[in-house]
Amino acid sequence: MTYGAVDYSGDTWTVSNLKPHVSIRFKGVFKGIQFGATPPFSLRDRPDLAVDLDWFMQRYPLELTERAQARLGEQLHIHAANHARVEELKRPEYTPSVNPGFKEPEEAESYQLRAAEMLRSTGRLLLLDDVGLGKTVSFLASVADGWGLPAAVVVQPHLSSQWVVEYIQRFTHLTAHEVKDRKVRDLPSADIYVFRYSNIAAWSDYAKTLGIKTVCFDEIQELRHGTGREYGTGTAKGLGAQAFCDAALYRIGLTATPIYNYGSEIWNVVEFIAPGALGTWMEFQINWCTQHGNHWVVKDPAALGAFLIDEGLALRRTNEDPEVAKTLPPLEKVVMQVGWNEGDVETDRELQKRLAQRVLSGGFFERGAAARELDVMMRQETGIAKARAVAAYVRTLVEAGEPVLLAGWHRMVYEIWLDALGDLNPVMYTGSESQAQKRKAKEAFMAGQSLLMIMSLRSGAGLDGLQHVAAHAVYGELDWSPQVHTQFTGRLRRRGQLRPVTAHFLHVDGGSDPVIMSTLGLKASQSHGILNPFAELESATPLDDTRMRKLAKAVLEASEHG
Question: Are 120 and 478 in contact (CB under 8 A)?
Fold first, then answer.
């Protein structure tokens, strides 16, 4: 007995005449099929999909045409060979054979060529190398000789020109076209099209007409909120990214930090690269997660990381790996407590107390609103209170001749820094500057016209070149996520840096800093296990409370002690 039919033509499988109950099961396995669609279904021809199709037919036999049977056998053989190939690529003694043909004198490191061969073998890869290890070069090495072209690369807005000029044109002989706007039109022929996360939603319907074979998502953590198809909280750029994924044969995501908050975000990231690899959202929650407050936290991050790597879905090399350690400078962390300047702070203590009480005992919506307001109030107050002490610390470094990258978050904190350090001619690289202003700030810092760049904690992801002039990163404000700090330090500690890098974490014994520093341990445990499944975590905060409840309790305890 058979439950439907399968044919193959060109690069497409066509599955038709499915029984209704089999159709439901089929759509549950092949998640790329649009919700509500009915047979016949079309599937792109990939080895991993052929394996899934073969597995599905073990339970629900389908009648195959002669050409479908022949192609299925070919793809099953290719998949088995690819799996063996992945295992071969993982062996430390393996010597990569791909030759990207980069422009002289540029060349790829052996570990970058290993990643390029991994993508070619599997067609889907989440490249999780540490910040500064050249994930961009790894991708370009995979396509520079013409494999997988044309390709679409999706980047953060401030990085699109950098991708074209400093990467594609510098390393390869390929042609590139930068898409800067949302005005849909016919694009000129190119090997690589560079889109922005801010405009891919507008171009989603155009994606298929480009005929792209490969899509690359730089800083793929931008898609951590997904499409919203599963749980209704996605973003327009997530839906746009999905359209590009549907149009491409091969997919790769580049990031050192796929998780900004809690481990459940990895499901969204993996879903773009290898749909269905972690099951449905509901299955992922049941099998991998536990609920912690309003968040889903991975129960065993190390096991999840090991699964992704074992399946060839992810590849991760760290700064400590022997193959890459020789290319990077050492990192030193300085954690220093500075003074609290009450004179700069205008605080409504009674309002803080009321908000804290709502966070702990209010209704659902009341708790959420109070938590957001308390978070903003406390973090800004903390940043302002230590702003002048931070400025004095930075001045010491700059006046000693050291260029400094200063991290902050709140505009009022920036204003105090600009007032205290104005004579040092600081340049700004935050969310308030235009792309042109950011480019000008980078050029001034690189040229030595300023020894101080004030950068927003979350504005510099992917920015390259600063390592050639600076080796000191100072954290004047802290972020809830340790991965943001990793990204920020990585602006300086990367390939091309010739000096040891120092990250200075300045904190006060008050406000939000003590709670944030404690919570960072929890988040580090989530990301560390997924990124480094076989490494020991030095310390991790127990999953005993949510961050805002901790902050609320700290506020009330402070008020009780006057």
Answer: no
